[in-house]
Amino acid sequence: MIELDTVDRRILRALVQDATQSASALGRKLGLSQPATWRRIKRLRETGVIAGQRLDLDRERLGFGVSVFLGVKLATKGRVSLEDFERAVSAIPEVQTVEHILGVYDYRLRIVARDIADFERVLRRRIMALPGVGDVEANVLLSEERRPGPIG
Amino acid sequence: MLDDLDRRLLRHYQRDPGVSPSELADLAGVTPATCARRLSRMQTTGVIRANRAVIDWRALGYEIEVSVRVTLDKSQPRAFDEFGEAARAVPEVVEVQTFLGRVDYRLAVIASDMTHYRQIYRTAILTLPHINEIEALMHLSRIKSDEVLPL
Questions:
Q1: ipTM for the complex?
Q2: Do B17 and A53 touch (CB under 8 A)?
Q3: How far, in whole angstroms, is CA A20 from its chain's centroid?
């Protein structure tokens, strides 16, 4: 675990807004030299604090009008290998995220679809056909906001 | 409207958002000038909102992530707004989502360990307004998290 100072946190917040800005542009904004900014960004990447980059697209404008979070309970625990389920569910293109969780459900999936009818198709033909799927609970996403978290 | 070339660029860009503009042009088989023009247009029209750094909270010592799922007391007309506003003020809340379904709100809460989580849960989460039911799901692992759209 690494400690961040105030400047690191400001750099991190700026890169979460826009990861494509150069070290010199970012340095100018923060009143730092280009080499100093570059060194700090390099450290944030090397220590894994910045795990990568993500393209933030307008899903609706690309034709994906519906996002659904699906809680999935495996029906036959012990008989179905978790690895088999994880591999099969991760291969479905409409499944954006797969999380293994502890609680009412075993897995939490984020699914995109063109509309509710399209979601029904994904659910019936793809998800319910997976090995070991038991109860599912669907919640349709209405709004979503990523917060700056403790670095804010 | 987007054409096939736009979609091809987005497919490659989504898979590897860290590529340079010239690498992206190569991947999509277009000239750097065309690539730059198309990307700039998609940014102007808002199809591409941003290219964001992804923070790994574990690297900062936040070992625990919990999904807190809440149903609200809907007899209170301002329940949705007031709950959302209060939840956004909790620093350890990294995601706020609203749903149509059994769950009204989901908060992603991070903590350094179970003791820290228990403290956040008691002092900052359970004290949020208008909670009717609340349940917590502990994250064990992320199997897939690229959030790539099937374009």
A1: 0.89
A2: yes
A3: 19
